[in-house]
Design brief:
- Helix 1 packs parallel to helix 2 and helix 3 packs across helix 4.
- The protein is globular, with a radius of gyration of 17 Å.
- Strands 2-1-3-4-5-6 form a six-stranded mixed sheet, sandwiched between helices.
- Helix 2 links the parallel strand 1 and strand 2.
- By secondary structure, the protein is an alpha/beta fold.
- It contains six helices and six strands, in the order H-E-H-E-H-E-H-E-H-E-H-E.
Length: about 170
């Protein structure tokens, strides 16, 4: 998820710029992987600079407050990646309240209906969502293997889909 978010932001900012990340709950496997994916992927783009990566704890209000603070400290931030859509919606609301709706890129994760509405309304530009079919398939596959006494990898990574205004109807 974090990798796709970074790649999308890099594509949207061909001239580069400062970016920020709002992190999920510390210690959660989803947050750990999303933070790592985003941070490492941003580092691959020399024209992008990760200027902040702060906790949001999966909470929209905390993400709102963090965004307000970050934009006051660093008004040159051009994009935010939030580790879930609840926080991305908080980021988008904060940017809107600062008069920056649609001027700063917002990418979330999960594909929740409110995030899709934000994409339609241009307050968010993208969300990365897991594909439920593959999550279900690999879950059942792992259960069958466990029942058969076979080894199952510690992590099974299912594909994810970047949703933007361009592909939303697909």
């Amino acid at each position: 998820n974090g990798i796709q978010a970074a790649d999308f932001i890099a594509k949207m900012l061909p001239d580069g710029g400062d970016v920020a990340q709002i992190e999920g709950q510390a210690g959660s496997s989803a947050a750990i992987l999303r933070i790592k994916g985003f941070t490492e992927s941003v580092a691959k783009y020399p024209n992008l600079k990760l200027v902040a990566s702060v906790p949001g704890d999966w909470d929209g209000t905390k993400a709102y407050d963090a965004t307000q603070t970050l934009m006051l400290k660093n008004p040159s931030i051009k994009a935010f990646y939030a580790n879930n859509d609840t926080m991305a919606i908080g980021v988008a609301k904060a940017l809107s309240d600062l008069g920056l709706a649609g001027k700063v890129i917002v990418v979330g994760t999960d594909g929740v209906p409110a995030a899709l509405d934000g994409i339609k309304q241009d307050t968010m530009q993208a969300t990365v969502t897991a594909l439920p079919f593959y999550e279900g398939y690999w879950s059942v596959e792992a259960a069958v293997r466990l029942l058969a006494g076979q080894e199952v990898p510690e992590w099974v990574v299912a594909p994810a889909q970047l949703i933007t205004k361009d592909n939303m109807s697909d």
